[in-house]
Amino acid sequence: MATRFLAKQILRRSVFAATSGDVVPKGFLAVYVGETQKKRYVVPVTFLNKPSFQALLSKAEEEFGFDHPMGGLTIPCREETFINVTSKLNG
After folding, report:
1. What is the pLDDT of residues 9-46, one digit of tens each?
2. What single-letter DSSP state applies at residue 25?
3. How far apart are CA 5 and CA 78, in angstroms?
4. For residue 85, how many other CB atoms are within 10 A of its CB?
5. What is the number of domains present in the chain?
6. Is there a contact between 60 and 77 (Cβ–Cβ < 8 Å)?
7. Could you tell me the sign of the dihedral formed by the alpha carbons of 19, 86, 11, 24, in that order?
8. CA within 20 to 30 Å of 17's CA: 8, 42, 63, 81, which one?
């Protein structure tokens, strides 16, 4: 439980949840995460160069295709999986 809390604290430093009306700052991109209900996160574009983030995108593409009906990048994985991957990218 403490590990999950720490991961969420680290994640908040560079990734943040945002409402659909929020403007995405320069250098960031909107990512919609979730298996059924999508939650919007804003992540640094530098994550696109990280192998673990690329692996997450590739797995999502293999399993679900690349359909982005929300207007941003959609990753249909568990929110916890997304948090675990992105929290490791801040180091």
Report:
1. 444 444 555 655 667 888 988 888 888 888 888 888 89
2. P
3. 16
4. 19
5. 1
6. yes
7. negative
8. 63
